[in-house]
Each structure stands twice: as structure tokens, then as C-alpha cells.
Amino acid sequence: MTEQAAPHRFVGRTRELDSLRADIARAGLDTLAGRPAPRGRVLLIAGRPGSGRSALAAELARGVAGDYPGGVHTARLSGPGGVAVPLERAVRDLLDALGVPPVAGAGPDHLAAELRAALAERSTVLVLDDVTAPEQLLALVPESRDCLVVAVAEGPLKGVPDVRPCTLGGLEPTAALALIATYAGETRIACDPEATHVLAEECAGHPAALVLAGGWLAGHPQACVADAVRELRRKGDSTEGSAGRPSGPKALARAFRLVYESLPPSVAQLLRLLPLAPVGVVDAHSASALAGCTVAAARTTLADCAGQGLLREVPEPDRANLTQYEVPGCLQPLLRGVLEAGVGREEMLFARARMLERYVRLLQSCRAVTEPPGSAVHTRLGGLPRALRFPSPEAAAAWLGSRLPSLLAAARIAVADGELDTLARRLVAALSRALAAHRGEAEAAPEQYRLHELVLGVAERRGLVWEKAAALLNLGDLDLRAERPHEALGRYRGALAAAREVRDPQPVGRALESVGAAYQELRDWGRAADWFGRALALRQTRGELADEARLRARLGAVHTYAGAWGWALREWRAAAAAHRRLGDVGGHARALGEVARVQQYAGYPREAIRTCTRAVDVARLSGDTALRTAVQLRLADLVDGAGDPEAAELHRAAAGRLAEQVPEAAEVRAAAVAVAEAEAERADDPGPAPVAGSAAEPVPEPAAGPQHGDAPGDGERGTGSAAVPEDPAEPVPQPVEAAAGTVPAEGSEPAGEGPKAGPAPRPAAADL
Hints:
three-stranded antiparallel sheet, 5% strand, disordered C terminus, five-stranded parallel sheet, single chain, 8 strands, mainly alpha
């Protein structure tokens, strides 16, 4: 057992620190040439893994942080196996650290532009660890000259202008002794300083080897320093077969064998499985799952390994059960060699499966704690073991935030491996739901996009057509919200083909509606109406009245934007009737409000006032104060436009009294006033001429509903009676009541918004 986990303390490297600080202050080549520097200053710390290069970079950043008010931000550019991290992932990590939410599904170039914009007016220190190529570094160097970049690499990076590497070797003797004493204690070092000097020489001054030697002494309190020297030489004699002063890598290998072979079997078993942990980071839960032991035993073992220099504690907020440890990068190849030599493929697979299963259960608990007390999910949470439960939603959110890189990496590794696809799909689903529960759909969108892409990869590899349709629908929704309608349209069409293959009407209906939403976002009103009509026909054949009401509203919105007042009136009236049959009083009032809006556009103010008065009466029965306020304000504007300002003021006063009851209604009223002032400035601009119906002639009522034939191809428009003319008008500018004190086009939209495009609601068939 280790006496105690030694705290991290930086020792030595005084000369290197002074050189790096002087390098910050020196004039660059651009300055000497009389031209401004095109980007921030770059410092390079070069050295082999284990030479203390990352610790030196962190110490330098801490020392100069006061000169850079934008803070210090770190990104690791290679994984535990030395593989370069994709640029997109590194940029996302930096954007998260800067508090800038990245756009879901954005490519590397777009993300890099976002990062440059975020750093343009900040004075920041970027520490880029484990750089593998000059291209990685150059893509992340900010253009602001007020920023400082500290890069860590194994050797010089050719192609990076105006950078001089600070190359690290072994520690000087005084610093080497201080580093050993950090783990072994001052007393034993002071009792035998000569042997300690010999021990430092046997370790070749290599910082990682010195840490392990000190860790061996910490784990053997009865041993003296001379014992450590003797054991270390024995490890070298038995494997190297040559005498003389060892090099840094050989010294590190000897010190690792010294510590590893002295470990108890249970500790050694856990340690050799740690390379299976994603991103080289492990906590008590993942370690217990890997080794098949209890969480308490894993927690003790991890603390002991940290005390012997085999692990490093990851700094985190001071919260219970949030301690994480990382395997030093220089030990990763040594541990992986032990893993491959002593653990079979089957045992590794079982260990990874246990870890993924533990992650799934923790994520389920993380989501369940957000449910209200007494719910079925919250009740099942009480049946979980104490170690898998979170005391509060705040503790669960903190755990999710700190473990998110490991969880995402675990999902990527499981999907890429291909042998645990079922567990991988369960992990992705649990992580997606936990993120949505704690962060909301908008904030979780970037991670959700990556998770749905993983699901799509598994579904395509395994031939899971239904899940392929669900993943494509979810990705299309995120593309549409990120204002990429063309990409969303491609996703939706792929989802429709997959849904038709499995003959499931639920995802087919959703895909049809989503294609219509994409065309609506593209302002292709004819195709949007055609696809919404197809979705409506499918829902009608299945007797799904709620979906029919929603689709009637979407059709009404499209025809309203196109200026086809007759078709818009027909669909909104049909939507109002469907809501009335459903007993949805609020939806009925909203639809009537939209009927009044279209009547006003068509030039029939008196009919609009009658319809809106009826909407006010219906809204009164709903009990929704915000809705009543919105409809009352719309009626006030209609009456005012008809030449009765006194009655309009009475309606506004009534809306004001309602707005005082709930904050939402007050916001609606404030927005209405702002939009009314803006509309007053545009009073002379009536907007585009009506396409169907005008103020001079009655609004035509279609004899039959729109005819929806086969889906038009990409190069043609629908030819049914509901199709909009070839060159439709631009969307109708919303007057006062349509922009602020209005009734939304759809029941799911908040009061105060007009009809707009958006992804179709996600039924259970399209959820993960």
C-alpha cells in the first residue's frame, strides 16, 4: 500500500523557463522586417514522452496567465495511441472551453473560422499538447497578435515560421533529487543522499523514470534508497544485456518494470487493463467495470497507483466521486505491451463490454434523476445500487460534463470496433437522452449530431434499415436547424427510402412531412405543399386526427407564404375543425386566428374581425392566458385597421390586464408594441399582390382539396391543383398581428410567431 498520493509539484527547468519567457518578449522576424506579425507568437517545447514537456508547458502557461486576460486553454492533438486527433474534434474542444457553442454538423473549415473569430479579440494562451504535424498547429494558431501558443511536440516542426524549439533533456541532479523526494519523502533522501544521486543517474535524469523510482520507494516504506538502486540495476541486467549509463527510454522501461512487477496481482490486473479506457482517462466506475471488482476497491487501487507515479490525478471541481485519473502518455506503450502479452482477446472484449454496460447504467441513472419524484423512471432509479445513483440533478450534470469526452470516445471506439454493436447502440441512445435531459436539445445538438452519425454507421454496417431511417431523420432535423436545408433534404430523402423499405407508416409519414419542411425552408412552396399533402393523405388513411390537424396547419402556412389565400383559408379552416373534433381548445383558437389573418391579407377586414372575435371566445375557454393575450391583441389591430380606434384601445386594455397575470403574456404584449411601431414605418408598403383572391373580388373557395399525385422529381414541380404557380411570390410580410400579438401557425409554436418551416415532430418510431 502507498503511504499517500504525492501531490504534483513542478521542479527544475529554471533555465528552460527563462528562455521561453525571453522568447515571448523578443521581436519576431516580421517585426524586424518592418511588417506586422500575421498571427500570435508560437513557442515550441520539444522532447521525448516522459521528459516533462507537458508539465513545462503548463508551468509556463500558469506563469504568464496574468498577462493574458482571455485565460489559458488546452487541447491535446493526439490520442493515447499516438494517433492524431481529427481537427474538427480539437476545434470543438477549444470552442467548448471558450464558451462558444459550435454549430451542429459543421465541417472543420467552418469550425476553424469560428475559432479564429472567437479568438480575434481575446488575449489568450493556447497550450497545444502532443502535436504530431505542422499542419495541426498551423490550423489552430489564432490570427490575433495578442494570443500566445505553446506547442508541445516530440521534435522540431518544419514549416512553422519564426519558431525556435526549446529541447528538453534530463533533469539536473538537484532537481532530480527533489522530484524523487516528492514521492519518497524528504527523510529517506536526506538519510542517504549518495545513494539518491546514484538512483538519479540510473534513471538518466529522465523525469518519468524518476517519478516511478520515487513511487516504488513510496510503495515500499521499509526499503531504503540503496534497495531501489539494486532492484533497478537487476531489472536492467536481466533484460538489456549491456552495461553503461542507460538512455532515457531504457531507464523509463526499467523503472516501469521495477514498479509493475512489485504490484499485488489484483492491482497489476487492473493496471494492465487501463489502456482499454477511452482517451486514457479512468475513474472508479470504469476501473471497477474493467477489472470486475467493486467500486470501493477500484477507488483505493487508483489512488495507490497515483501515489506510485503510474497515474496522474486529473484536476476537477471539488465534488464527491468525481476524481479521475489519466495514464501518462509515456506509459501508454508500456502498458499496452503488458496488456497484449498477458491478456487474451476474449478477456479484453469482456472487459470492454463490462465498461460499456457500466456507462449505459450510469447514463440511465443520470437521466432518471432529472425526472420528477414519483414518476416511473424515478421509482426505478431507487432500485439501482447506491454506487450507480446520483444524489441530485446537479451532481449528475457535473458527472456528465466531466465524463463527456470519455463517453464520446467510448462510443466512437465501440462503433469502430464492430464487435459490440448492440452495446454501442445502447450507449449512444443513453448518452443522447442524458444530454437532452441535462442540456436541452439546442445546447446538446453538436454532440447529438456526432452520436446520430455513429448510429447511422452501425445501421449501414449491420443492415438495420429501420435504425438507418431514424438516424437520417434525426440528422436531417439537426441540419435543418443549422440552416443547411439542402443537406437536410438529402437526409430526409434517404430516410424516406429506408422507411418505405421496412414498410413502417410511422417513419414514412414523418419523412414525407420532413421533406416538405425542407422545401418550405428553401421557399419552394409548390413542392412543400405537395409533400405535406402526401403526408396528410397517409395520416388520413390511418385516422390520425392530431397529425392531420398539424399537417393542415403546415399546408395553410405554406399557402399563406405563397399568397394563395383561397387554399390557405381552406387548410386553416380544416385545421380548426380537426382541433375542434379533438377537443383541443387552444389549437382551435390558434387556427381561427390564422384564418382571420389570411382573411385580412385577402382584403376582407370585416370577415377577419368576425373570425378573430370567435377566436377570442374560444381562447377564453382554453385557460391559456398567453394565448388569450395574443388573440386579443390581434383583434385590437384588426379593429384599429378597420377605423375604430376606440374599440381597439378597449381590446388592448383587456390584453394588458391579461398580460399582467403571466410573464409570457407580458412578453407577447411588449413584442406587439415593438412590431407595431416597426409596421407603422412600413405602412405605405402593402407587400406583394395576392396570388389567389384580392380585395376587389371574393376569395375563391376550392371545390375539392389539393390533389397530390406522385412525388415530383428534383427538376419539376407538382402539377396538382394545390401546386403554386411556377414563380411564386416572396413570403408575405407579416403585419402587426401576424408578427407579434398573433396566433402561431402550429399548435406547438409559441404564441406570437407566424408560420415557419421546421423539422417534423419526432414520433417514437424515429427516436433512438
